[in-house]
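Title: [Solved] Iron-containing alcohol dehydrogenase 3D structure

Original question kept below for reference.
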Amino acid sequence: MSLQWFRVPKDIVFGEGALEYLSTLEGKKATLVTGGSSMKRFGFLDEAKKQLEKAGMEVSIVDGVEPNPSIDTVVRGGKEMAEFKPDWIIAIGGGSALDAAKIMWVYYEYPETKFEDLVAGKFPRLRTQAKFIAIPSTSGTASEITAFSVITDTENHIKYPLVSYEITPDIALLDAALPAKMPAHITANTGMDVMTHAIEAYVSTAATSYTDPLAMEAIKLVYKQIPVAYAEGSNMKAREDMHNASTLAGMAFTNASLGLVHSLAHKIGGELGITHGLANAILLPYIVEYNMKATDKFAEIEKQLEIDDLVAELKELNKKVGIPTTLKEVTEVEMTEEKFNEVLDRMSKNAFADPCTLTNPRQSSAEDVKEIYKVAFYGTTAKNI
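Solution (posted by the thread starter after getting help):
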């Protein structure tokens, strides 16, 4: 018997003013986990704290989660929580804050946890001391809905996608007022991350009748609304649609998994520091082109979007939102040909070994992965791989 699962948080709370839901929680203590200063600067951290205090809770804050959260950060957060002993862990911010908080939760409840066990998928049973709420500030990672967390081993320059249904949040709290404050380039990177989640989940070898409609709806919403959200940051209809698309795509990929785009993005992010969403956006058209030989589901996407060439449309969508079409054009980190070639062999082997490779629609190899990296760096075609 081959059983499959479809699991998402017990509750998804969404709509205008959704942060007020925090005032209805029952408990004595809550810890807020956040990243840089944006949640504080825009007043959302204070608002969350106020709503929790309305519920009669004492509140602590674990902040300073970096863009690529490290093992040291999650262990530190777990220790701080162990001293405070919260009943609720509430992550508020971008995907990094949410991902980090999930693993802090593990170290809070089980301080002796070995990171290598988590990498191997050996997670302890959580909720012995706290429940978990995720409040995303970006419409992108969908960490609020998923059983995934990406943590970086900074010593070895490897990003590890950690997977367990234990770290699926109890409640996802969606308030479009938070992503409405995102700058345009973050809107672009996170929005194309949503498109990547949706497309990879749709063509995954583990896709089901439960995940396909969610993935397709997310694809349609992003295709229509990401140019609007990018150009008109305060357009709340576009923001709400993108926020919902992110969660829908998350519901799909946390159950159907992903593919080579994420495998390659994880490793180039770990090696060269490129932002995850940006790496996904650039790699996506090339890997769609590579995968087209293996499935007719891309043709279904073209039919639903009423377009003729998905690869060309994805490249055009990247251009519309200011994303370069090749890796060599990236300016946020030093992406020189010399640096790229220096890590290419190791990066290709590690990407092929990434768990996301398992559900890619086309069987690949480390050599194929190396060639895909090269075509995405130079902007050539993946048709010949």
